[in-house]
Amino acid sequence: MEENRAQAYLQLIHTLLNSPNGEEPQILQDHLELLDRGFLQTCELVASTLAEQGGENGAKFLRNLASQLGEFMDTNDDQNGDNSEGENFQEYAKFFLELLQAEQDSNSDIAVIHPMLAEREHLLNARFAEIIKQVAQKLIADENRETISSIVGLIDNLSIHISDFSGGNRANNIEIAITGYQIVLSNREPGSEMFAQTQNNLDAAYTKRVKHISDQQK
Q1: What is the C-alpha radius of gyration for the chain, rounded to an integer number of angstroms?
Q2: Exposure winner among 75, 106, 118, 174, fewest CB in 10 A?
Q3: Which domain holds residue 166?
Q4: 82 near 107, Cβ under 8 Å?
Q5: Are residues 95 and 190 both part of a single domain?
Q6: Residue 166 in contact with residue 124, Cβ under 8 Å?
Q7: Dihedral sign of CA atoms 110, 121, 128, 163 in order
Q8: Rounded to two decimals, what is the model's pTM?
Q9: Residue 92 to residue 132: CA distance in whole angstroms
Q10: Whole-number pLDDT of residue 29
């Protein structure tokens, strides 16, 4: 962990612990770039130290925050634990490709996409988010600029539809959308109008993530 980032984690934790009740969601919103695995690990370390020093309330708060945020980052899917790795990958990859094809064929019609998501909402989980990164990378590899633009456009639209989907697990839907937007941004020209639009969508998804965490803590 880089020293500067480690210090930023500690500063954010200090701010959260000393902020007036109810201001935590806004503080998290203002520091979205720090909400990663390293932050979770730092929360656990600080919580342990606080507990040893008698600061049970602060330790409980940090552990609860880390637990809620960790739901979005969990790469294990217990529901599919009985499947072999290869079968698991093929099922998710096939679903992702079917969704992209439907986005193209329907001109990104939400009336087409949402029923497909509802039919297999059990696949909308952290495992799906991880696999779409792998599949997208294979789809884009060695393609020309026009084809890449078309593919990431479909992924962008799919991410919007998943973010807006009311079925399944809300936390998982948000995390999948974030993954999709990140794929799109990494394949668009920084500073372009389309890049800015996707960046706005990503920021909105981060906001939904923080709000969901806040709601879970109430």
Answers
A1: 19
A2: 75
A3: 83-217
A4: no
A5: yes
A6: no
A7: positive
A8: 0.64
A9: 8
A10: 80
